[in-house]
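Sample pair:
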Amino acid sequence: MKKIAVVAFGGNALLRGNEEGTIEQQEKHTLDTCEKILNLIRSGYELVITHGNGPQVGNILLRNEAGYNQFKIPKMPLDICVADSQGGIGYMIDRQMRNALNKSELKKNVVALITEVLVDINDPAFNNPSKPIGPYYLKEEAELLAKANNWVFKEDPRKRGWRKVVASPKPVNVMNHQIVKDLVEKGHIVIAAGGGGIPVYYHEDTKYLEAIEAVIDKDLASALLARLINADRFYIITDVPKVYINFSKPDQKALDHMTIEEAQFYYDKGEFPAGSMGPKILAAIDFVKNTGKEAIITSEEELEKENSGTLITL
């Protein structure tokens, strides 16, 4: 019987931090990543791919501002911008996955789904914006943009600059996860929950479904989707080959394996910052704790190698 792997593409799988972000650059990185994860299919896994959208949705928001300021084009809310990014990035992964498949002996259909994710309107995260989106700015630039647009900025933990932050509520349910399950069990490669999904909530009195200004962490949404479709393994692709403690310090140490207790211990010690490795660790813990199965955090370059990345287990 075929196994299911959910693979969460990090931003580095699509775009490097020091790049302009042209479509040619993004397509090249996407194709490289798609080619590498084909080994999972060869190992007997059916694939569900999720992805981030931080830089892309940030650029969409900037186009929003530029279009309004110059041509008075009405601004679109964040949920529409997230949906735009899901469509664009999903299409890009779809096409490059088809290109990767065409270069191999593997035959698969690929489908990208616009995905809404249910959140709790009373989630305390709405009182503490913390999720970074968009490009990095100098402190002075961030201060000017914050004043002009009533945005909130925070400094990147790795000192790469300042980024806009928005509320990041916990995902409660992935809408249409049964459709994702049905498709992947039939052997199709499914791209879903892009950017953590489009955050929506139900009004208690009318059950009217409405969007809300927020961004859901894509790793937490990916872990929830992996649980809901009964995935056998959860991969988180990031820009480092393994999880480290004392990261970027002279005594940094790569971890080959962690139990969820060890991962929680290091998280509580502050080893994994909220704007960096923290959500990935919490997502891995969530998946392993609720399924008893394995999660792996690694880079796309290491994905093809045996025993790659950091293995997280019970």
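Helices lie at 23-42, 54-71, 78-102, 139-149, 177-185, 218-228, 260-268, 278-291.
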